[in-house]
Amino acid sequence: MLAALLVTPIAGPMVAMLPTRRAGISIYVWIGSFGLHRAREFNKVIDAYVLRNEAQMRAKLLPQALDVFAAHRAKGDRVVVATGAPPELARAILAFVAHQDVPVIGTEVGPRLGGVGPTRHCHNEEKMRMLRERGYGDIDIAYSDSTADLPLLLAAKAPVVVNPKPAKVEFFRRVLPAGTRILNWGCVDRGGDRA
């Protein structure tokens, strides 16, 4: 904890800016995982964390998002979760809502200088490369809240922006195709049209 506080004057601003976000996050992950030597050990820490915090995590899941997710699956749509988080974290959360069989593409981790760090960050353009490598090149619908996912949103036939930061709504309207839905699924401090 002390190490994380000590690096925050440098790593904190790095996380806040898109061009340096990966490096900033990597610093914190490395500090938190120091002493772990394999992705398998890191995944066990993630699983334990999710179990300890299940109630709080469940409370943060958006009912509207879960309904949309379930509706896509019920229609037989091919659904994949692409996240900047490690896949184990996304899988553990999906297990809460009985969607543990959904493919997950996320940040790959491995040994780094006495800890664990990203070996391939599922972020921005790299997220699209990782999706294509796994056979998900044709994207009908993509949902995201982040400008970091602009390559994904631009690749989708029907991009949907959900719960963006209010200051980013006009940016999304400018760069995405006319008629792109920008929705708010119940987050009072976020932008978008109430769905």
From TrEMBL:
Species for this entry? Knufia peltigerae
Lineage, top-rank taxon, reads Eukaryota
One Pfam family cited in the UniProt record for this chain: HAD
Instruction: Specify the protein name.
Output: Haloacid dehalogenase
